[in-house]
Amino acid sequence: MRELHVKEIENAVREMCISSNYNLPEDVYKKLSESKNTEESEIGRDILENIIKNADLAKENRVPICQDTGMATLFIELGQEVFLTGGDFEDAVNEGVRKGYEEGYLRKSIVRDPLLRDNTGDNTPAVIHLKIVPGDRVKIVVAPKGFGSENMSRIKMLKPSDGMKGVEDFVIQAVSEAGPNPCPPIFVGVGIGGTFEKVAETAKRALLRNVDDCNPDPSLAEMEKRLLLKINDLGIGPQGLGGRTTAIAVKVETYPTHIAGLPAAVAINCHATRHEERIL
Ligand code: SF4
Questions:
Q1: Average pLDDT over residues 19-47
Q2: Which of 64, 72, 140, 261 is most buried, by the most CB atoms less than 10 A from its CB?
Q3: Whose C-alpha lies nearest to ligand 1, atom 1?
Q4: Could you tell me the CA-to-CA distances from 192 to 11, 204, 249 in Å, in that order?
Q5: Residue bearing the CA closest to ligand 1, atom 4
Q6: Separation of alpha carbons 132 and 89, rounded Å
Q7: Residue pair 132/78 in contact by the 8 Å Cβ criterion
């Protein structure tokens, strides 16, 4: 058993809340920069230029990429040979979020009660997805999620007979209806299978993949390529002002499901697709 003090988890979460809000992941930055060379619309190219300039300024001056610094969403893999000491695991994560948002001057966007709408004042609680895995390490991914794009994410319980075409039509409809709201160019995560709640998590996890990778299953890799082309043919463009760069990536992930169902989910992230990973 390897002992790990929860303070190390708190510190890592604190640091990553700040740095993920200041720095765009390199692969996302590179893809957005490359898109400037392929975008056909002049206004689209101008917007991409400004998005890149904004990311550069945020990095240089250590300020958030966007005013919406998001709901802290964490994907944690906890090795089953790790023995956590010094306190409660979830408290440590939330303390990291609290300190990170305070010290990084990040907007506090979380309301305690979704109906009464009183702000918690420290951006807690986080949304934590925890998996117990083999080994003696802890992998933490912090992904601040802005709600301009979160509000445009969709879920649908399709029929098995709807098949791949049904899923693709649903994805295109979701992106088309989202229009300019999720601050395109967007990153699209598609989840297929599982149950109602599993498919949403699967789609969300897909957003953590590298912009340039493709699904190891050839038919899903083809589906990703096809969906990207179809989305970019919609003409929504950067910030919805027209153009071909509506999405920079589409990632599809699947999970086994029930004989009677075909759940599908579309998780949309904006051009400020932020996430950072650390292994303790
Ligand atoms: S959708 Fe993204 S870029 Fe747009 S306001 Fe929200 S966090 Fe910022």
A1: 96
A2: 72
A3: 148
A4: 35, 11, 17
A5: 183
A6: 13
A7: yes
